[in-house]
Amino acid sequence: MNAISCRAVCKVFGEGATRVTALDDVSLDVAAGEFITFVGASGCGKSTLLRLIAGLETQTSGVIEATGVPVVAPGADRAMVFQDYSLYPWLTVTGNIKFSRQLAAHTRDRTSADVEAALGRADTLLQVMGLSHAANAYPSQLSGGMQQRVAIARALMTRPRILLMDEPFGALDAQTREVMHDLILHVSALEGCTLIFVTHDVEEAIYLGRRVVLMAPRPGRIDSIYDVPLPSERKLAMKYSPEFLALRFQILERIRETAGMRTDLDLLQRLSQLPVTT
Q1: Could you tell me if residue 30 is left (phi over 0), alpha (psi between -120 and 50 degrees) or otherwise beta?
Q2: HEC profile for 96-154?
Q3: 154: Cα within 13 Å, side-chain hemisphere
Q4: Using an 8 Å Cβ cutoff, are 72 and 5 in contact?
Q5: Which residues have C-beta within 8 Å of that of residue 182, sequence separation ≥ 6?
Q6: 220 secondary structure, DSSP code
Q7: Fewest CB within a 10 Å sphere: which of 74, 186, 196, 272?
Q8: What is the pTM of this model?
Q9: CA distance 169 to 85
Q10: Residue 111 scores a pLDDT above 70
Q11: What is the per-residue pLDDT for 121?
């Protein structure tokens, strides 16, 4: 069974003159346990598709299934990590991580076994994420990278089958991003969950994903899908391999083409010759 199945998915915002087709006829299968990444120019519908899969938005037409069940709302089988961390400032690191498990517990009678399991799961995630020393700290006391690790741990707290990540490392510096790349690959292998990752960074998409889905804008649609010719266990040195560099160039060129971003040298020359007025 596929973890995610999209069939002829369309999403339209607005009506009449303000009508915008954000997604048009998107069909895609994501296998259970697969790590797939999405790239494309701004406005191509990457984040919109992720929100539809999460159940945070409803498609205008088409069908989306998660583990064989139609998606009509958010569910415990899916968890999402956003770029802006979205931590609760009044809770400690441990409190933030346990929050989703505690929320779920309110829908049923809590037992001592539930509490013990939650504490054990939270403690394990603190260790895996390298946050044990900051268990009692508050978000304002953490760096951006540490806050994002808390957000990922919170998303994993309920053991979701599907983890959705919307540009989660976009605000981090280059060094921290590399650490986070290896961390999320480790967590993905450890948890065995299906991971769908949206990014603007083509290098990041290739390094993390088994497949890279390139989306094109106006309207948002899947343009092409690339299999990543790298071993399952990723290492930093792979970014300099001929296979990696060739695929990076191919995807970047296709993004430029789909977004109409070809450089007009004559136009640039004319621009440089225009007088500057004050």
Answers
A1: beta
A2: HHHHHHHHHHCCCCCCHHHHHHHHHHHHHHHHHCCCHHHCCCCHHHCCHHHHHHHHHHH
A3: 27
A4: no
A5: 234
A6: B
A7: 272
A8: 0.87
A9: 10
A10: no
A11: 85
CATH number belonging to domain 2-77+160-273: 3.40.50.300
Q: What is the pLDDT of residues 71-106, one digit of tens each?
A: 999 998 999 998 887 899 999 999 999 886 655 554
Grouping H, G, I as helix, E, B as strand and the rest as coil, residue 156 is helix
| Half-sphere CA count of 94, side-chain side, radius 13 A | 14
What are the CA-CA distances from residue 240 to residues 218, 230, 236, 244, 245 (Å)?
33, 12, 8, 7, 6
Tell which residue, 156, 111, 164, has the closest CA to residue 129: 156
CA distance 222 to 126: 37
- What's residue 107's pLDDT? 47
Q: Is it the case that residue 166 has pLDDT exceeding 80?
A: yes
Domain residue spans of the chain: 2-77+160-273, 87-159
